[in-house]
Amino acid sequence: MPFDKNILCIGAGYVGGPTMAMIAHKCPKYKVTVVDINPVKIAAWNSDTLPIFEPGLDEIVKKSRKKNLVFSTEIEQGIKEADIIFVSVNTPTKMFGVGNGMAADLQYWEKTARQILECAESPKIIIEKSTLPVKTAQAMERILTFNNKVHFDVLSNPEFMAEGTAINDLEYPGRVLIGSHQTPDGLKARDELVDIYTNWVPREKIITSGIWSSELSKLVSNAFLAQRISSINAISALCEKTESDVMEVAKAVGMDHRIGSQFLNASVGFGGSCFKKDILNLVYLCRHYGLYEVADYWEGVVKINEYQKERFVMNMSNAMFNTLAGKKICLFGFAFKANTGDTRESPAIFISKRLVEEKAEVVITDPKALDNAKKDLKDQDDKVSYVEDPFAAASGCHAIAILTEWDLYKTLDFHKIYSSMTKPAFLFDGRNILDHQMLFEIGFNVYPVGKPALTHF
Ligand code: NAD
Ligand code: UGA
Fold first, then answer.
1. Backbone angles phi, psi at 363, to 5 degrees
2. pLDDT in tens, 32-91
3. How far apart are CA 323 and CA 398, in angstroms?
4. Which residue among 36, 53, 344 is best mutated to probe the pocket of ligand 1, counting the most ligand atoms within 8 A of its Cβ?
5. 346 lines ligand 2 (CB under 6 A)
6. 229 vs 242: CA distance, rounded Å
7. Contact call for residues 55 and 30 (beta carbons, < 8 A)
8. Whose CA is nearest to atom 7 of ligand 2?
9. Would the CB of 161 count as within 6 Å of ligand 2?
């Protein structure tokens, strides 16, 4: 039976894989093909071991692969057959030339646009799924329309899912945003995309806007989320000086419904592939438009995050008699957050490297992220070891630092762990997830974030 529509997604990463699996799952009448230049990744998407860990993902991918979901390296063929093309290639921070360390590196995007132009033989809707600087659609259109070979409509449809909860976020999104040109063609293309989402998303949750507002809304959403974390982390430093408790402060502040209680967990700092890169991209755009004060304001969010990570290492050093040299420190968690194996921009990378710089020995444990941790720290080999079992990892260590809020750490037998450690034993809870009083009573010297330390000295 022929399919109603052929949907293609270019880029089979953390966004392309799960978003297309959800569309395929919810829209059995569409054929959904996901392509990538990386054959190893495509082979993994076609295997029993998917290339990313995401709760609930295995089930829908495996179900849909038998019906209407295809992973392939045949990019040209995919473009020819597609009516609608999502582009979700990576848009990392540019690490060379103009905008070095700040701007978005758009080379993967531009390559994709040129390849679409080269291969397309029939009209297509092109959808920006990647996070992009405002006005990227204009550049895309200029490439796509220069020879008027076929008609293209470009839409912006940024993705708001978070890792670890991607499947739930995709199934029940807070909102779906679609930006288009306000021309008859633009609005027609927009309605086609609305039709895809209405297969499972209530119509009132699908919002539409101009294309530039849509591109900008994505950068601003991430900037606002990260700003909340930097705000509470900045306050955590003040709490530590004033014997206040940042969790009590966050609760009191967050109960004002105008502020809200989410994203106010003080931590060792935010990580993930997007917050830092998207804010730096926003900062770069502001400077480009001569808005220096605006740029400086947002750059502060990233600066506080760097400060928080360094502060965590300094707190460890201060607590452990001002030297970490020769001490064995166990990191509980390496992923940038719980329920993912992703370690991109994880605070654990910075902290591991700083501990090695201080001549400590680092032992890393994590239920899902050890393979990525090994890649991230490959140049630190002889000072870092990787142990899957947290009990074995902590054995003989001077300190434990909780860096990822995995549920499993909340229920460990800390009596057993304490008894295997070098004394005095220290515990630095970079996520405030443990029962600090109980740990103190066991014998640990406990250092939460933004709360008074509990020590036996
Ligand atoms: P990713 O690195 O996991 O995946 C990108 C994929 O694109 C890679 O597999 C890469 O091989 C492929 N690719 C690059 N150039 C290609 C080309 N020319 N042709 C075919 N494939 C190509 O990245 P990601 O985390 O999925 O992020 C993708 C975009 O989505 C970024 O712009 C990011 O900011 C945005 N985003 C990410 C998240 C997230 O949670 N990770 C959430 C929302 C938005
Ligand atoms: C984030 C956004 O939440 C998504 O909406 C967005 O689509 C995505 O970025 C993106 O554009 O890539 P993600 O990075 O996957 O999603 O995860 P978050 O839950 O936002 O956590 C980011 C970081 O902030 C993690 O390191 C997390 O531990 C930390 N965090 C989060 C805190 O330190 N405190 C908090 O209160 C919340």
1. -115, 130
2. 999 999 999 999 999 999 999 999 999 999 999 999 999 999 999 999 999 999 999 999
3. 12
4. 36
5. no
6. 20
7. no
8. 160
9. yes
SS3 category, 274: coil
397 counts as catalytic: no
Q: At CA 398, angle to CA 445 and CA 339, rounded to 5?
A: 85
Can you read off the two tokens belonging to residue 99? 């905008």
Q: Rounded to the nearest 5 degrees, what angle is found at the Cα of 160, between the Cα atoms of 158 and 163?
A: 130
Of 314, 322, 328, 373, nearest to 349 by C-alpha is 373
3-class state of residue 72 by DSSP: strand
Query: What is the residue with the minimal CA distance to atom 3 of ligand 2?
Result: 162
pTM summary value: 0.97
Residue-wise pLDDT tens digits, 240-276: 999 999 999 999 999 999 999 999 999 999 999 999 9
For residue 184 the two structure tokens come to: 């008859």
The residues with which 361 forms a beta bridge, in sequence order, are 328
- Indicate whether residue 11 lines ligand 1 (CB < 6 A): yes
